Amino acid sequence: MSPPIGIWEHRGMSEVEVTPRADAAPRFDRLLLTGAAGGLGRELRPRLRKLARCLRASDIATLAPAESGEEVVVAPLQDAAAVDAMVAGVSAIVHLGGVSTEGPFAPILDANIVGVWNLYEAARKHGVVRIVFASSNHVTGFYRQDEVIDPAAPMRPDGHYGLSKAFGENVARFYFDRYGIESVCLRIGSSFPEPKDRRMLATWLSYDDLERLVVASLTAPVVGCSVIYGVSANTTTWWDNTSASHVGFRPLDSSERFRAAVEARQPVLDRSNPAVLFQGGGFVTQGPFDRSRQETP
Ligand code: 15L
Question: Which end of the chain has less Cβ packing within 10 Å, N or C?
Answer without folding.
Answer: N
